[in-house]
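User: Hi! I'm a student and our assignment asks us to look at how structure tokens line up with a sequence. Could you show me two examples?

Assistant: Happy to help. In each example below, the sequence comes first and the structure tokens follow. Example one:
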Amino acid sequence: MIQTICHLIASREHGGLEKHVADLSHWQACNRDVQVAVIAHPRYLSTLDERIQFIPLNTDRSRLDPNLVWRLSNLIRKGEYQIVHGHGSKSAQLLAAVKPFTETQQVITRHNVRHPRDKLASAFDARIAISENIVANSKLTWNIIPYGVASQTDSSPNSGSTGKTSQIFSGRESPRRQVTDGFTLDAMGTATWEIYSQLIPELTS
């Protein structure tokens, strides 16, 4: 059973990627019996639910900075995380750099068309993309899980808006299958949890 998950943010913005991590980590902490941590720059502390273990790290340093790689690997080893989930290109590069020094399942989410590229993404244990268009030119297998939107029954640290999308792409057997439904935060969280469960087969929902 999964007991520890860690998310990694290495960006400098406050946009869709960062909101997605706040929503996803919040959902996991509220809906699964699991310890959730987020490693990120201190500026993101205020965006996260108080149930999340926040671990500050100056990710503004160059992705090639050996001190940044060393500190990140130490944090991951210390936390003994079973799954580390990176978001975006810089997170992917950092996780690839620490992989030889850590023992954890690594997941990456691709948030834009260009990065991380296939050569880098191929090293991860599982890959998620936020839309079909994002990975249209990729030769790898991706699990498509769009951003979730808060519904009336969802609780979110950023649930200031509501709405729905007409397409959901998720699923264990066919990662590109289409489901026509409103895509809520709960649907996003559940679909992501299914990806984790493939890495840890004894996981029970």
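Example two works the same way, sequence first and then tokens:
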Amino acid sequence: MQLRTLVLISLIACGGSPARPPGEPAGPAPAASPAPAPATTAAAPAAKPPMPAANAADDPYLWLEDVTSDRALAWAREHNQVTQAELEAIPSFATSRDRIRAILDSKDKTPYVTKRGAHYYNFWRDDKNPRGLWRRTSLAEYRKPRPAWDVVIDLDALATQDKESWVWQGASCLYPKYERCLVLLSRGGADANVVREFEVTTRKFIDGGLAIPEAKS
């Protein structure tokens, strides 16, 4: 009896099951583990239907998308007159307008620059150059109270020459000489740009150079 007890204790300690003595009926068989459920594949999301094209019935102001049409411009002028009349009725309007204009046209503004090679470029607007000048100078000149600037593009003169209301949108120049640039211009400040290749040394747009038509690019 003691020997059998020792055997049972040893089997339990080792994680085993004690042997069934002879003649002892077998106990019930252990329940089988349930079979795992078959994996299911997630259904792909349904494709969204295409957006229907806008039409005048859905948007009565769709015609304003043609921002340069006579009808759209007349509508804008009409509403500008209403807004302008309301603003000018404010007693402090004229004083504020003149003060802001004087600040914007001040010759004492800091001409912020971008360094490209040996030159420091700046785009400048004032009362004499409302569309602006893209110009450059040297570091020695920039340190002076009144630097001498070399005008690269006179946007007012270019607008007159091209008969376009050009608005400056920036330039990207080719490293390391920075002599070839892509100049971005928009008509009237629109959110679409015209891109034209420009030669800094000759101050001319390159005939047959890269030219990207007006686009929101």
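Here is something you could point out in your write-up. Confidence is low (pLDDT under 50) at residues 1-14.
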